[in-house]
Amino acid sequence: MKNQRSLSRAYLAGLMLSVTPLLAACAAQATPPVAAAPEVNTITVVGRGDVSARPDVARAQMGIEVMAPTVHEATKLAAARMTEILAALKNAGLAEKDIQTSNYSIQLVRQPDVPPWMAMGHAQPAPAVAPAPAAPAAAPAAPAGRGPKAPQPPAPKPPPADLAPAAPPPPTHVYQVSNTVMVVIRKLDQVGAVLDAAVAAGANNVWGVSFGLDQTDPLEARAREKAIADARARAEALAKLQGVSLGPVVSISEVVEHGPVYAPRAALASGGYSADMGTPVSSGEVPFGTQVKVVYALERAPAGPRK
Fold first, then answer.
1. Where is this region: Disordered (predicted)?
2. What is the phi-psi region of residue 73: left when phi exceeds 0, alpha when psi lies from -120 to 50, beta otherwise?
3. 8 A C-beta contact, residue 292 and residue 252
4. 131-173, pLDDT tens digit by residue?
5. CATH architecture type of domain 39-56+214-271+279-307
6. Which CATH architecture has domain 58-111+171-212?
7. Are the C-beta atoms of residues 62 and 183 closer than 8 Å to each other?
8. Measured between alpha carbons, how far is 107 from 176 in angstroms, rounded to an integer?
């Protein structure tokens, strides 16, 4: 009995060893091989589109800069002038939302020409007084009984007293206060008038006058169309040089470029302002550009007929 069981186990073990390689071969045949992805040749180009349009908005920086011996005096003077400037801007037609404070600063400015004794806090040295001229020597007296008596010289006059008050010493420093607003002018025919109104109200700093577009969507669309056409033309020219043809677009990206047009800085100062002469301003045109990066797939051009 034991011999029969041993023979059965040996038979089963041999059967398993013979079947296992067959099963492995069948599994290998059932799994299809993974095909390698075909290599795609591409060409990358950058197209550009530039357009321009008349601006519809202007922006400018304007404000005041004052100096005074104390912070209180400087801030009080700056506040009074800036209040008049803001009122003038609103009277010129600017809305509250189009006037925004862009800078407010207080600085200590030291005077470079202060005498050393003043900077050190010492008292001013007394000015040197020139010594009084010596009285002329008296002539020798004539002997008694001989001729007239010699006259006595006049006594020297004392130096005149300085009746004018002494000038105060120059300050060692002053405080400078600057207050600036950025304004948006939506009526371009009123730009010069707004600048003149601010200067007449006390503004002594005006700069950064620029022109731009409030709505750029239509301009972007026109620039984008030109950029795509330019990219296609460049890609076709390169493909033709290499004897291939363009395939579908693989990827595309866009870079928008635009900037304001700056007017020449006006030399505006309250001291040289004349109400009879307005400030001329020219708006010109606003340039707008965009770039597109396009990647095209390449296809082999069909071979021509054989001769």
1. 127-172
2. alpha
3. yes
4. 555 555 555 555 555 556 667 777 777 666 555 566 666 677 8
5. 2-Layer Sandwich (3.30)
6. 2-Layer Sandwich (3.30)
7. yes
8. 5
